[in-house]
Amino acid sequence: MSETVIDQKSASALAGELRRYFSGEVLVGGQPGYNNARTIWNAMVDKKPTVIAGCVTTDDVVASVKLARHHGLQVSVRCGGHGVTGKALADGGLTIDLTRMRGVRVSPDNRTASVQGGCLLGDVDAATAQHGIIVPAGIVSETGVGGLALGGGIGWFSRKHALTCDNFLSLKLVTASGEVVTASETEHPDLFWALHGGGGNFGAVTEFEFKAHKFGPEMRIGIALHHPEDAVQALAEYAQIYPELPDHVGWHAALKQSMPGLPFVPEPLRGKRLLLMIVMYLADSKEEEGEKLVERLIGVGKPAAKAMTVMPFGARVQKLLDPEFPNGNRYYTKEAHINELPEE
What we know:
The chain is α+β, with helices and mostly antiparallel strands. It has nine helices and 15 strands. A five-stranded antiparallel beta sheet has the order 5-6-10-8-9. A hairpin with a 5-residue loop joins strand 8 and strand 9. The relative contact order is 0.12. The mean pLDDT is 93.
């Protein structure tokens, strides 16, 4: 599809054309709600789509894609809007906004969850927790399922249940031609393969069907905080222990430039530069083995503070880090991947 930027003078006519086939809300610049609709998590992103198509059905997505194709508009798809780079918005183009499509259907007997394309992780967790199951996803409840899952999806349960995309059963999506297809192991298998980490390049996914796993709803977690001068020792001890850990133990580590005031952080350590280490026991929270393992792991090195507790996963653990990544901050990230933790 070629990319054409439609000037503001043409926007109203374009929006009017879309509304004839649309059951959701169509917004253009200057209308009430437009600025809120173009505001996403990262405040560094200031894009202005010519048209924002607030879809409520798959048919709305089809109409949006066909309109954009006909007029040669650049297209983006917004789910949670939680990506750092702001790809959820098409500057001067058409943004397909799925945030009104947040339904979740759970089949506890089959251990599956059908999730609409605009859902946040918190939507899925709230629905699955009622049945004692989980869908492996990320670590911040306000993250959009679509962006996370189509990019792979790393989170609390990755060590035991792999990436979020590894739990795909099927995906309903609208292709660039406006065709609605279902991709699975038996239908469009090449497309199904490509959607495992290929990002949002292959179509607008309006519904995911996930394999779910029995869990909880309680999770045992442990927290340890280390001063920078003690971080090397703590990480070195962790590197020695890690190979012997069972798959039902997860570990998250991050060096914080300014430790936020999370519930487990003592007042004197808030705002300090610290290494944060979180241990997750991914089996039954009541198991004695879990208590012993978590206690051992939060004790590595010389922690400045440590704590262990049991809390509901969806209602508490998944929201634990939300205050650290609020909407409206200016975010910039860089990352690298290493195979081991060398002594130096």
